[in-house]
Amino acid sequence: MTLVNAGVAAVFLRAAAAKTVGPGVAASAVQELLGGRLRPSDNAVRLVAILELATVALLVIPSGRAVGYATTGVLGVLFAVMGMTGKLRGSDRPCGCFGIADSKPLGTANIVSGLVFVAVAVAGLLGPAAGGGTAAMTAVLTSAVSSGWLLVTHRTAARTAYRTFLRRWGSA
After folding, report:
1. How many CA atoms lie less than 13 Å away from 39 in the CB half-sphere?
2. Alpha-carbon Rg of the chain, whole angstroms?
3. Which residues on neighbouring strands pair with residue 94, listed in sequence order?
């Protein structure tokens, strides 16, 4: 369960970072779900980011995991409902989901990821000792998953940086 906690925490960490830096993408997607009438403020989107960051901390700290699983379940239901609404309304704006600005609109991926979060929450709450694993182990795994995900999604930039590093290293 420690690796699952780290994976979920990495997803929330990346999503929270994107919402904090550029809340407009998520706000625009929610505005579309609301029929274009009301656009959430950037601060409202950032409040969701704070909830996601709090969930990351709660999933990492063993004594907070039960609350972390509960918030994971609540966020999962929210994402699934938003995905269903986006699918039913034919959403076409990128949602900025998982910290990817040019992502697909709200739909099937949100429904599936939301249901996965709910399943993780249920498994964590019903499982032994709120998931096990030390805070350090979960934090290191969260960092590794998040870093690996970042390198894969930005592999061209990572290759360029790596090649530049090697050229500079060789000239020293």
Report:
1. 10
2. 18
3. 105
